[in-house]
Design a protein that fits this description.
Elements lengths: L8 H4 L12 E10 L3 H12 L4 E4 L15 E2 L7 H8 L1 H25 L10 E5 L2 H18 L4 E4 H4 L10 E5 L3 E2 L2 H14 L3 E3 L6 E4 L5 E5 L2 E10 L11 H4 L3 E10 L4 H7 L5 E4 L5 E5 L5 E6 L8 H15 L8 E11 L6 E4 L4 E5 L5 H17 L25 H12 L5
Parallel strand pairs: 1-2, 1-11, 2-8, 4-13, 11-18
Antiparallel strand pairs: 3-7, 4-6, 5-6, 9-10, 10-11, 12-15, 12-16, 13-14, 14-15, 17-18
Helix pairs in contact: 2-7, 2-11, 3-4, 4-11
C-alpha cells in the first residue's frame, strides 16, 4: 500500500495551485532548503523577509507530505503532557516550551492575516475526549498542574457536561483548551509558497535532492537529477520522509509512523454542528487514539494510526477507521466516505521535536510527533534566526546531540525493533 498515492481531502478541495518547474542546471543562493512543507516554507519566508536569497527543493510538490496530509489541528502543547515535560525538564524549560506552543499558533495567525492567505483558520480551541472514567481523573490532575505551575487554564468536563461539546456516546468526559486552532493545511502551505515566491524566493518541485556535499570553501552543493544548488547554508526539513541516502545521521534519529484519515461526504450543516457543537479540534485519550474535526464544507474528517496486523490490507485499515468513526458518531452510519488518505508522522526518541545545527553545517527541524501543524511554522522562524544569528534567544528544543533510534544499532535484534515500533504507535497523540 502506498498511502501517498491517495489524494487527501485537502488537496481535492484546495485553492488554485501553482505548478512549479523542476531545477535545470546550476543555481546559486544564500540558503538552500530541502523540503517544501511548513518547516521549509516558514524558514525561507522569514529569511526572505530579511533579504536572503532562498531556494527550496521539493521532491514532490509543495505540501505533498505531512503538511498537506495532516488533520489541520493547530494544537497547544506537545505529544507528551505538560506534567510529564515538567517532571523531565524542570519548570523553567517546561514554561518556555508551553510559551513556544502558544507562540506558534499566534505566528500562524499573524502570517495568515498579513499575507491574506485563505485557509479557513479558526481559533476555537480543542477538546480532549476521555475514553475511560480513569482518564477523566488524569485530565483533572493535568488541569491542576497547568493552573498551579503554569497559570494556564483548561476546563475539565464530566460526562453530562461533554454533551455541550460532543454528541457522542463513546466518551466519559473531557477537557477543553480554548487556545488551539484549525485550518485547511494544504491551502496554508500553497498560500505560504505563493507568498514566498512573491517576495523573491524560489521553489523547485519534482526536484529530489540526491546528494549533499559540504565543500572546504564554506559552500554546500546539493545535487539533483538535472542540476545543482550552490549555497552558503543548508536546511534539511524532510521530517518523516528523510532518507538515509540523503542524510544518514538525521534519518537514523527519526521514526516515521503511518497515520491515516477519512472524510465523509458533505453533510447538512445542522448534522455536523450537532456532532461537534463549537467547531473545536478533537482527539481522545485512547492509546491508539482518534482525532477528528468538522470541515468548512460540512464534512467530518477522522484520523487514526495506520497500525495493523500482518494480514491487514489497505481496505482493512480504512474499514477499521470507519468503524471507529461510527463508534464515536453512530449518527453517521448512512454517511458515505468520500476521501481516504494517509502519510507519515515523524517521531524522535524523546517524542519531542529536534532543532539545531550539526557539525557539518546542516540546519534541521523535525520530529513533531503529531503537533507539526502548529510547531513547524515557529521552528522555521527559529531556523531562520539561527542562520541570521540575529541576537536570538535559546530555544529549549535545540539539540546538540541527536539520539539514534535503538533499532539502528548494529547489534539490535528484530524483536527490539518491533517492541520500540509498537511503543511509538501506542503513544501517538493526534
Amino acid at each position: 500500500m502506498n498511502l501517498m498515492d491517495l489524494m487527501p481531502l485537502w488537496e481535492a478541495t484546495s485553492n488554485n495551485v501553482t505548478k512549479r518547474e523542476p531545477l535545470e542546471g546550476d543555481r546559486h543562493c544564500d540558503v538552500v532548503l530541502i523540503g517544501g512543507g511548513f518547516s521549509g516554507l516558514s524558514t525561507a519566508y522569514h529569511l526572505q523577509k530579511e533579504g536572503y536569497d532562498t531556494v527550496i527543493l521539493e521532491k514532490d510538490k509543495v505540501g505533498g507530505g505531512a503538511s498537506g496530509r495532516n488533520g489541520g489541528q493547530i494544537l497547544t502543547g506537545f505529544s507528551d503532557s505538560m506534567s510529564s515535560i515538567l517532571e523531565q525538564k524542570g519548570i523553567e524549560t517546561a514554561k518556555a516550551m508551553l510559551d513556544m506552543s502558544l507562540d506558534s499558533i499566534d505566528l500562524i495567525s499573524q502570517i495568515i492575516d498579513e499575507n491574506e492567505i485563505s485557509c479557513g483558520f479558526h481559533r476555537n480551541g480543542h477538546i480532549v475526549a476521555a475514553y475511560k472514567d480513569s482518564h477523566v481523573d488524569k485530565l483533572k490532575k493535568e488541569q491542576e498542574t497547568l493552573k498551579k505551575h503554569f497559570d494556564y487554564d483548561v476546563d475539565v468536563l464530566e460526562k453530562h457536561e461533554l454533551s455541550n461539546e460532543l454528541n457522542s456516546p463513546l466518551y466519559r468526559g473531557g477537557s477543553v483548551d480554548p487556545n488551539s486552532a484549525m485550518f485547511h493545511p494544504f491551502n496554508y502551505a500553497i498560500g505560504l509558497a505563493d507568498t514566498l515566491e512573491g517576495m523573491g524566493g524560489t521553489i523547485y518541485e519534482k526536484t529530489e535532492a540526491t546528494n549533499i556535499n559540504h565543500e572546504a570553501s564554506n559552500k554546500v552543493v546539493v545535487s539533483t537529477p538535472n542540476g545543482r544548488v550552490i549555497a552558503k547554508e543548508i536546511v534539511l526539513v524532510t521530517n518523516g520522509y528523510t532518507s538515509e541516502n540523503l542524510h544518514k545521521k538525521i534519518a537514523r534519529t527519526i521514526i516515521p509512523i503511518e497515520s491515516i484519515m477519512i472524510a465523509t461526504e458533505q453533510l447538512p450543516e445542522d448534522v455536523v454542528s450537532n456532532l461537534i457543537k463549537k467547531n473545536r479540534a478533537c482527539f481522545d485519550t485512547k492509546n491508539l487514539l482518534y482525532y477528528f474535526r468538522r470541515t468548512d464544507d460540512n464534512r467530518i474528517a477522522f484520523g487514526g494510526s495506520g497500525r495493523s496486523t500482518s494480514k491487514s490490507d489497505e481496505n482493512n485499515l480504512f474499514n477499521n477507521l470507519h468503524k471507529g468513526l461510527l463508534d464515536v458518531f453512530p449518527e453517521l452510519e448512512d454517511a458515505s466516505i468520500a476521501y481516504r488518505w494517509g502519510g507519515k508522522v515523524g517521531f524522535t526518541r524523546e517524542f519531542l521535536p529536534y532543532i539545531g545545527r550539526l557539525d557539518d553545517g546542516t540546519h534541521f527541524a523535525y520530529g513533531y510527533a503529531g503537533h507539526g501543524a502548529a510547531m513547524s511554522t515557529l521552528l522555521g522562524k527559529v531556523l531562520a534566526e539561527n542562520i541570521m544569528d540575529n541576537d536570538r534567544g535559546f530555544s529549549p528544543l535545540e539539540k546538540k546531540e541527536l539520539k539514534t533510534i535503538p533499532f539502528y544499532s548494529q547489534h539490535a535484534k528484530v524483536v527490539n525493533l518491533m517492541k520500540y515500533y509498537y511503543k511509538v504507535l501506542d503513544s501517538i497523540k493526534n
